């Protein structure tokens, strides 16, 4: 089986561990290194486990062109009408910032990593000893990039936005062909913001079982509801975009989490994971007191030998200790064989 837990910088990804919450900075630094570092500080305070960048320039990702196919559709709610080059020129994280951001993250005990978009980005991230890599949704078909990243022999997280199961299978097989089986696939809806109705969280266990990989969610919906729900379907990694304040603006701010929301995600995703427990329908260890307080049959008034058991002197009440309530019809009408005081649990020896 390939789904052994994946160790990363002292943390582990797998069903036996709380979900790894990944905070994506993306372009929400708004072109300010100090803001980027402040976001890292905020992520550390939130309780999330990792912080992620995207490593590209406008020119490594596209070309400066204005033909219609190089423009985002005008009806797009956030970036409509922008050329790809203009958008990426605003959203990219300068490469000279990476070392400082990685260092700040490591000071806090966070896992720093990034999505590379070409070989030069991988070179930079290798120089920074990135402990894992993320392949963005729209790069899942770039097999040369997948091979290059796979050869680092570091864990790889894939997003499946806008991809089919066949696309995913090809990507996973390409990585495995390089001898790398440390793979996590994130269910993802590649729209910004995404509708919860299109999250299709039920696909998460299907991806897990079909490809024999760890799974998670890259979530672009508003809030944390979809992300928390994903834990119930087996998500071992949850990725959300983050910002200091949506009011500050930024290319991804509209669907990014603010500090209090990220803190809630870190807490509640662990709670959801703990709540999964085991598929059992027996009382738990912590329910011993509740078991003691379950109903049973008690003598509710003083009786003497020879008295007849009736609803007046025997009832089903709390706590436990007497015969189970299911025996109430069986004992009605029988005769007490000894004197008993009020508050005595009913037993077979008394009649």
TrEMBL record:
- The species is Cryobacterium flavum
NCBIfam families named in the record: PseI
Any single GO molecular-function term of the entry would be: N-acylneuraminate-9-phosphate synthase activity
Cross-referenced Pfam families:
NeuB, SAF
What is the name of the protein in this document?
Answer: N-acetylneuraminate synthase
Q: Which EC number(s) are documented for this chain?
A: 2.5.1.97
Q: What class of enzyme is it?
A: transferase
Asked whether the keyword Nuclease is assigned, the reply is no
The UniProt entry, under InterPro entries, shows: AFP_Neu5c_C_sf, Aldolase_TIM, PseI-like, PseI/NeuA/B-like_N, Pseudaminic_synth_PseI, SAF, SAF_AFP_Neu5Ac, SAF_PseI/NeuA/NeuB
The UniProt record lists the AFP-like domain at: 296-351
Q: Which UniProt keywords apply?
A: Transferase
Question: Which GO BP terms sit in this record?
Answer: carbohydrate biosynthetic process
């Amino acid at each position: 089986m390939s789904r052994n837990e994946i160790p990363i910088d002292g943390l582990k990804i797998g069903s036996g561990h709380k979900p790894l919450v990944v905070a994506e900075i993306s372009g929400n630094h708004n072109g300010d290194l100090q803001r980027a570092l402040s976001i890292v500080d905020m992520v550390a305070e939130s309780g999330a486990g990792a912080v992620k960048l995207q490593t590209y320039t406008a020119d490594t990702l596209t070309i400066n062109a204005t033909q219609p196919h190089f423009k985002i559709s005008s009806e797009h709610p956030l970036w409509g009408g922008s050329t790809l080059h203009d958008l990426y020129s605003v959203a990219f994280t300068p490469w000279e910032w990476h070392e400082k951001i990685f260092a700040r993250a490591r000071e806090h005990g966070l896992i720093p990593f990034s999505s590379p978009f070409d070989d030069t980005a991988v070179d930079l991230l290798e120089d920074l000893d990135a402990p894992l890599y993320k392949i963005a949704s729209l790069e899942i078909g770039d097999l040369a990039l997948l091979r290059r990243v796979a050869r680092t022999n570091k864990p790889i997280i894939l997003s499946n936005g806008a991809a089919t199961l066949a696309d995913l299978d090809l990507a996973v097989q390409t990585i495995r062909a390089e001898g790398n089986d440390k793979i996590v696939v994130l269910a993802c809806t590649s729209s910004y913001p995404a509708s919860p109705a299109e999250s299709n969280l039920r696909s998460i266990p299907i991806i897990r079982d079909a490809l024999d990989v760890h799974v998670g969610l890259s979530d672009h919906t508003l809030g944390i509801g979809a992300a928390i729900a994903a834990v119930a379907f087996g998500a071992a990694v949850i990725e959300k975009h983050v910002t200091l304040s949506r009011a500050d603006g930024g290319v991804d701010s509209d669907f990014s989490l603010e500090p209090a929301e990220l803190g809630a995600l870190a807490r509640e995703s662990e709670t959801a994971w703990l709540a999964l427990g085991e598929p059992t329908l027996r009382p738990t260890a912590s329910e011993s007191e509740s078991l003691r307080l379950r109903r049973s049959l008690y003598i509710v008034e003083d009786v003497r030998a020879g008295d007849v058991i009736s609803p007046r002197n025997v009832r089903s009440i709390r706590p436990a200790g007497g015969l189970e309530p299911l025996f109430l019809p069986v004992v009605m009408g029988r005769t007490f064989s000894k004197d008993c005081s009020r508050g005595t649990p009913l037993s077979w020896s008394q009649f």
